[in-house]
């Protein structure tokens, strides 16, 4: 027991040291100046003739409107009123809101205006308007424009900011002496609002002044207070406006050419094979009523989305990929509530992808083709929110059949279905409540044609905060069901937490349970079930400048974990983070993880009921980031982990410089290196004969060194705010050298074993090149030309040096695709207006 108490003492000593640092930081603070900023409101002015959206506020009607000014600093010092005034006015008619803003400054050189792609503001000033059209203080819309005319829009909800949401709206900007001005037209078709004779909306404006890294809100947003939308002002005076008929079509046509190594198709008569394809499809948006919208995509084409960053995965869990497909990114904030939905399941790997490698079932066959992805036929979303704050979302997608091709030694081919025709469904009901609270019901369902199993999940989540928005209780629960041939697998989970959510000092206590049969992975993603976790988390944050810091965020927590079945100890970890920004706008952070006792890994053995005794270990890491306003900026990161087992340790570090040549051309490079020495992990399962002559499975672990190198180079040239050219090249290399082998004992320990495979090592490479030309030639309409190059290989002969390995990667047969896609946005109201003028 002595090592146990020694380890715990180390953990407690670290905790006390951490708390001391927080108190010392607090002692450095001067007396904080108190500011009293009541909620603001302004009137919108109805007009009969719309202004020209040209960035020049020269129409006389602008001078008759209310002026929103006296913006309040949010960063770096919350509270004081801006010194360089901002003036904003709002007009409206039966079609749209019109926002005119003038941002006063000291000179044009002080106005940063880097060009960038849509929804990527970069190193620039910007102005934004935020609307809470249902006044529920949870959900809102944001529209932002930079001096270079780059647009950014987002949705806000209890899930945070959804930057992937896109709307069709107009904006124009112009420099005027030492100032810059912006005009925005936000059509009612781009937002949702209730049917009332007089509307009162939540409203806020925001200005970013990049030269001084200052941010200002019209209605003060206190960083120590929980929530964003609940801290907005009011927009009044909107009378007799009605939600218009919202109908838009976005047809597309695309041409696609692919070149890939011939052996992927089982052919030997040529080095490469070529495929050509010409297709078309349609996206449709229809406003069912003032609150709800129907979104449909027919025969979607995702060939132009960004390539996945594939790596060598030595863990027992699947690799999780980012979602890059527009249909699954836009307007999905309702469906993502509770984290029950992992959209990459739709169109992802076939459910029976690995079945064709079963040597017992397909003995004598070689796999010629086994597509990694399924094909989505169509998708439908219906979503919106009623005037009473009830959000409703219905999602449906259909995925077609997928087949693998096998061949025996005689040349006979066999087609095996790896994915049946599959229907995916999600239903969400989300009720907004007072005090930034909510209650939500979620159901996900997967139905597959034929004998493959079906799945269903029903979940609920809630959050209740007090009137002062200082304390809250939250939780969620779910029941998962898998309908298999001989019965139903039922599993459940629940989680409940309580804590202080506003102020400098925050805390949260939580308890969660995931049963051994809980499995949401048919339409969600979960890495670990069969657990019971208790967690405590303490935070002390400083939001205003003190000493040499602009802000400081600290965090200390611990997680105690047991198995659900059987009820045995599993893990205990203490963690902490400390990060902040200095007054020279350099930022840095430190983080620590301690596992001060031996823990038990029930997943690495890849066999139910078995576990590996994981050693005591300590990890420390940090990062450093320079001022992004500079032409040359640099990010650094590192981590070191030490195990009380042999000479086991790991070291990871990375460096990422970025260089801005001018306001149109920029480059960024990232290098990351990961090195694990004397690492121990699962290698294989073998079958042996025990003392009674019966066969039994032996679990083999390997002692190995793992070295990984990641390189990424990105560059972009922005012609204007509608046209861009972007390039990204990525290369992942991982080398695994396994030199000793051990058998896993029933008590979780390892003993030396005589197992010796012919190929104990691995050499993994993945290479991607994506070049994208994009031209938004009209609102909502785009021409894109994409060239992709890809290579992936996992062999058993490691290359000793990086550049030899990289040369081999470049000279190996690679898959290439070239595609052209044209989308044209057709809006019913715009077309009707044009026809009426003829």
From TrEMBL:
This protein's UniProt keywords: Signal
Protein name: Carbohydrate family 9 binding domain-like
Signal peptide: 1-24
UniProt xrefs under InterPro entries: Carb-bd_dom_fam9, DUF5916
Pfam families for this protein: CBM9_1, DUF5916
Domain annotation DUF5916: ranges: 244-834
Source taxonomy: Bacteria, Pseudomonadati, Bacteroidota, Cytophagia, Cytophagales
Organism expressing this protein natively: Pontibacter saemangeumensis
Domain of life: Bacteria
